[in-house]
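Handout, section B. The chain below has 247 residues.
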Amino acid sequence: MQPEDLVRDHTIYACVMGSRAFGLATDGSDTDRRGVFLAPTALFWRFEKPPTHVEGPLHEQFSWELERFCELALRGNPNILECLHSPLVEHVDDTGRELLSLRGAFLSRRAYDTFTRYALGQRRKLDADVRTTGSPRWKHAMHLLRLLMTVRDLLRTGGLRIDVGDRRESLLAVKRGEVSWARVEARMARLAAEAEEALRHTPLPPEPDHARVADFLFRARRASAGQPDVHDEVVQGVVRGGRLRQG
């Protein structure tokens, strides 16, 4: 089975990401497509395992295998968490709907570290641009502001929303270079401080719900293999790390 076959025949969830999902699209914006595929369980019985991700076959399309996607989401990866919350869903099947129903299970206070660490990396690139060219890449500055707003609001509310809503015009002004770098820096500093303050009172749990996600992945793999429900108690007990009574 070729990688593109996995995307074409086994995608459980597909969405549009990037500026279009963020509510920041303009006439020249690309359409970034992201998805999740469930590789048939039988493919894991070979020495050569199925890929953890596939680029394409469409332009600006990228997909993850379900297990890799869940691993990254449990770690609080910003791109993965935002993918789960895209308002622009292009395809979803029953397994994909169950994945979406678990969105809350992936959210935790870890998001503060992962989002802010990613933001710090982007800020360093912007600072390097300023040192070498005298100005940042304004599009990247806009998206860094958006990211800081997103994590601040996530920590405040416990819910992740990626559409910028009525902040669109103020952010696009940054992209057009209409806001001075000094003002953008001040906004970044304020948003970072607000996110840190929100962390102290956040309703998010300390850790994501690994057990719910592990149970979902187990059942998805089992269904793909066409396995009956016999021994479910035993196998799921192992997955959850529970103790089983001897009969």
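Note. Confidence is low (pLDDT under 50) at residues 230-235, 242-247. Compare this with the example in section A.
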